[in-house]
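Regression check, pyridoxal-5'-phosphate case 254:
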Amino acid sequence: MVVLIAAGLDPSGGAGMVADVATVARRGLRAAAVVTAQTVQDSARCHEAIAGDPELVAGQIARVVVDLPIAAVKIGMLGDEKVARAVAAGLSPLAARGVPIVLDPVLRATAGSALLDGDPRSALEALLAIASLVTPNREEAARLSGIPVDDEKGQIAAAQQLREQGVHAVLVKGGHFAGDSVADLFLDGGDPLWLRSPRIPGEAPHGTGCALSTEIACALAAGNDLRESVALAHARVVERIAAAVSVGKGRKFL
Ligand code: PLP
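Current build output:
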């Protein structure tokens, strides 16, 4: 069973493609990998980000989509609108077959560079339409929905607005709020699902958003439905954050 990752390269390995492929391997699945962007990055900071070549990305996706039994897709950093649209076009045959697509709408690194140029609503328009789930953090949810996200009410309002914009399901992550607990909100057509966990003290590890969206894609590939996959992946990432280790001189890795 194959999980297709379309993501940027973080050479430190803490986030992006290297971390995503490691997550897929951790779950006993195979990864196919299309690098959409490059970064100059270490465990402390992202210094530079450059989008990939949309034609190369389109060619790579076209090959793996025809060749491999792809059971789920995770999309991370895209760099710019041309690459984002190339990924959306390349994935449309999978979307038409009902293969689940998880979109982590990465806009900027926690410390440093923008990871998507331009207006995210326009850049991600085609991907938002085909994604089974979109996993914005607070800032990403606000920029994609146009609604301020300052508290749990804001999380609900932004998720509802994104659904009204045609997004199938949304997970608005709450890790960037202050407080002793963290609440992520999952919203599809049914009852809202709040995933709560105590805040783990210390600086947030690098690459937690990447890990969460890839864990969800892996759980979907293993045959769980979307709601179960989100809950399972959330529990796995909470465990992984508690067990994070110092590898480089900056933030911990999962
Ligand atoms: N680098 C790449 C390639 C990423 O995909 C991401 C996040 O998705 C990051 C860096 C940012 O990670 P963090 O916010 O943990 O710094």
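Comparison notes: Residues 72 and 222 are 9 Å apart (CA to CA). The first strand starts at residue 2 and ends at 9. No diff flagged against the previous build.
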